[in-house]
Specification:
Shape of chain B: globular
Number of strands of chain B: 11
Helix content of chain A: under 10%
Radius of gyration of chain A: 13 Å
Strand content of chain B: over 45%
Largest sheet of chain A: 6 strands, mixed
Number of helices of chain B: 0
Oligomer: heterodimer
Number of strands of chain A: 11
Largest interface: A-B, 25 and 28 residues
Order of helices and strands of chain B: EEEEEEEEEEE
Structural class of chain A: mainly beta
Strand content of chain A: over 45%
Structural class of chain B: mainly beta
Shape of chain A: globular
Distance between the termini of chain B: 37 Å
Chain lengths: 113, 112
């Protein structure tokens, strides 16, 4: 049973517009959430994270929102650029689990020029 | 700083053969993790080393998988004998503190 779900396997947006990637989780013990970006033939690279004590974290064009009551988080990319085209993984962890991460299945983002 | 290095990048083996994957973590990172992505699905945890000790191996699929980290430096993951369902991309990651994982590029294993 997947504890972290990314229900959209793919998303296409126009360059300059906003990209919104969504993620849902079921485990209430998760207290830390991360987004990773993955290009083909490369490993995932860390993008942005958020602790459960916050509901928003911003880093440049990337903002992550956390809705604990709905067990939902989202990643907003504004403005989207063609170089943002990649697979985005949502991941969650619990401070009691030695930083082991549970990942979603990923969303392929394609930013069209 | 050198990143996490994995070798080989690709491996194609026949069912029943043995394959050994290697991971060199970032120097000084005591925490080393193995993850696997099968058939484009989620990236799943396999096991976690702290130095040379296995902290958590709850994600290992079965006893055909053996991981070692002798001396607390590099790690190997051996699959013996390999089955078709073992095909996937095996990622290694290392971490110093916090949640800051650094992943390697992965080893794509194909069992035919």
């Amino acid at each position: 049973d997947q504890q972290v779900k990314q229900n959209s396997p793919s998303l296409s947006v126009q360059e300059g517009r906003i990209s919104i990637l969504n993620c849902d989780y079921t485990n209430s013990m998760f207290d830390y959430f991360l987004w990773y970006k993955k290009y083909p033939a490369e490993g995932p690279t860390f993008l942005i994270s958020i602790s459960s004590i916050k509901d928003k974290n911003e880093d440049g064009r990337f903002t992550v929102f956390l809705n604990k009551s709905a067990k939902h988080l989202s990643l907003h990319i504004v403005p989207s650029q063609p170089g943002d085209s990649a697979v985005y993984f949502c991941a969650a962890g619990s401070s009691g689990s030695a930083r082991q991460l549970t990942f979603g299945s990923g969303t392929q983002l394609t930013v069209l020029p | 700083e050198a990143g996490v290095t994995q070798f080989p990048s690709h491996s194609v083996i026949e069912k029943g053969q043995t394959v050994t994957l290697r991971c060199d973590p970032i120097s000084g990172h005591d925490n080393l993790y193995w993850y696997r992505r099968v058939m484009g699905k989620e990236i799943k945890f396999l096991l976690h080393f702290v130095k040379e000790s296995k902290q958590d191996e709850s994600g290992m699929p079965n006893n055909r998988f053996l991981a070692e980290r002798t001396g607390g430096t590099y790690s190997t993951l051996k699959v013996q004998p390999a089955e078709l369902e073992d095909s996937g991309v095996y990622f290694c990651a290392s971490r110093h503190t916090g949640y800051g994982y650094t992943f390697g590029s992965g080893t794509r294993l194909t069992v035919v």
